[in-house]
Amino acid sequence: MTNKSILVKYWQTLYPETLLTRLEEFLSGLTPGVASDEAQDWYKDATVYALYVELFNNNFDGLIDKMDYLQDLGITCLWLLPILDSPMRDAGFDIKNYDRIRPDLLGMSESASKEEQAIAFKGFLKAAHNHHIKVIFDVAINHTSDQNPWFIESQKTTPNSFSDYYIWRDQPDKYLEARLLFKGIEDSNWEKLGDRYYFHRFFSFQPDLNYRNPEVLLAMTRNLLYWQEMGADGFRADAIPYLWKEDHTSCENLDNTHVIVKFFRAVLDYVKPGTLLLAEACQQPKEVVKYLGSGDECHAAYHFPLMPMMFKAIAMQNGTPIKQTLSSEVTPEINEENQWMTFLRVHDELSLELVYVSEEDRQYIHSRYCLDPKWDFRLGEGISARLSELMQRNPDKIALSYSLMLTLTGTPVIYYGDEFGKLNDETYYNEQIRLTGKDDTRFLVRGRIDWDQLEADLSDENNFHFRVFELIFGMLNNRKKQKAFGRGDTQFVDLQNHEGHDCPGVLAYYRTYHKEQLLIINNLSDKLIKLKNPIPEKDMAILFPKGMRVEDPDNQIVLEPYGFVWFLVLE
To answer: The pTM is what?
Structure first.
């Protein structure tokens, strides 16, 4: 094994007192793979679509039925929100069994075997791959469900092989500096069970795993390998900053957490090079880039601060928040093989965590977008609302926000339903409160797609959902033709209006990759703007216009409120 020495190094860093024979036993069962002819950095050109299988179209068979829809939309990668076996108290992020999929998603009974499940899931993967769509899915690697067999065994007073899989104390007297992530929902990071306490960073029914126990690392690695062998193209590593705990620290972003991630990556690369490892780390970019390492940790990571700053820029009608966030002072340069994943909305709240948002920004964004007190999450540190609700159901503002996300740095993630302006789902929200016993406002941004109703909506040109879908469909299918969007450099440029004055309400930038150059101009304001065109008309081609025209004889660009245009600069 060519990287055996690397894995030995990681192992000895984490577990200096543990015999190497345990690692060697594990490695002896691995078979080295060969890289495919396909580009290993496929994720840089991807358009990702995030969905809950059951909410999108009932189950995997229903999802297969919509593969043509997704392919026509321009989707090249599916991010499946939790699919593994779970009691579903946290939408599947509370995993009961890591080697099984929830039977209902496969149309199977609880008694279905792993082999039967594997055949069905491989059938789904084949259907996706036949449509040139990759598949990645969530794996919660920091914690499990309290119904996981590991935890059930761990809580027994009689010592067993799982006793040390979790963090137990007689008193809640460790890791006191670890911040409380779910303010207003949980009172402590410790939960009493019998005469002892266990540690958790998220809900109390999600006990944290104890990675100080080498068996936990090996068990989680085996879980990833199982699905990799099945044909999964990658994994979203949920809650990655919290893996390793040290007393008298924040228990976030610790050095040994990075060693654990390197271990995962080295093993996955050995068995099947090109398997995506995606970091979910709600941190400042300067911390997040550390999870990319030097080509030895994750391939990609979410750019969490960019998301709220896009909302702030639209509210301010000024592009400065975006420019500042993407400046080298805030967002460090990343290696060529790495990539940022960008998004407007996902399954969680519009996060305003003070880890990466200032108190001033938090108050500003919350005051302008939390239009209903019910939308508040974590005592003001988040807003639970769909993009269409945040943009007050204005198709022009929705399209503008998508123009920003699709043309700025990174690989875009589309949250299911946003392509047609899906709204908050009050019915689903109330249903889930009854089922889970938790008033989690994030349930508002989930909910099922009614495909019959959608078909009717999309057949009416005057319908709100038709207008949103038509705009986003056009943008997605134009974007996929240009390599510069996923791989190019970004250079912001200041444009002047027809009178020679600066236009703070305009955010313009070049995207350049090799000989391909694009110019993107967004009007963030609610006013019509006339601009001096920086490019002679003969030297540009319009890729996608929205509320835009070019006026002769001065070659002025006229942008309506919230209008934008994508140009291809001709050689």
So the answer is: 0.96
Work out the number of other CB atoms within 10 angstroms of the CB of residue 176: 12
Distance CA 185, CA 122 (A): 38
Number of C-beta neighbours around residue 155 at 10 A: 17
Cis peptide leading into 305, omega within 30 of 0? no
Bridge-based pairing state of the strands 77-80 and 134-140: parallel
Q: Nearest to residue 83, comparing CAs of 67, 66, 65, 105?
A: 105
Tokens of 160: 């067993």
CA-to-CA distance for 509 and 491, rounded, in angstroms? 5
Q: Per the residue annotation, which of 41, 138, 238, 376 is the catalytic one?
A: 238
Active site residue 516: no
Instruction: Look at residues 181, 490, 571, 90 and name the one whose alpha carbon lies nearest to residue 306.
Output: 490
State the alpha helices, DSSP H only, in 15-134.
20-28, 53-57, 60-65, 67-73, 114-130
Q: Does residue 288 come out as left (phi exceeding 0), alpha (psi in the -120 to 50 range) or beta? A: alpha
| Whether residue 348 lies in the annotated active site | no
CA gyration radius, the chain? 24
Neighbours of 533 (CB within 10 A): 19
pLDDT along the chain (571 residues), means of 10: 82 93 94 81 97 98 99 98 96 97 96 95 98 98 98 96 98 97 93 98 98 98 98 96 98 98 97 95 93 96 96 98 97 96 95 91 98 94 97 98 99 98 97 90 96 98 98 97 97 90 94 97 97 84 94 84 96 74
Q: Is 498 helix (H, G, I), strand (E, B) or coil?
A: coil
How many whole angstroms separate alpha carbon 391 and alpha carbon 434?
Answer: 29
Q: How far apart are CA 416 and CA 56, in angstroms?
A: 7
Identify the active-site residue in 85, 280, 376, 381.
280
Rounded distance between C-alpha atoms, residue 25 and residue 30, angstroms: 10
Count CA within 13 A, CB hemisphere, residue 375: 23
Inter-residue contact 236 to 138 (CB < 8 Å): yes
Residue 543 structure tokens: 């890729």
User: Going from the N-terminus, what domains does the chain have, and what CATH number goes with each?
Assistant: 488-569 (2.60.40.1180)
Which amino acid belongs to residue 348? D
Whole-angstrom distance between the N-terminal and C-terminal Cα of the chain? 49
Separation CA 346–CA 79 (nearest Å)? 11
CA–CA gap between residue 186 and residue 180 (Å, rounded)? 8
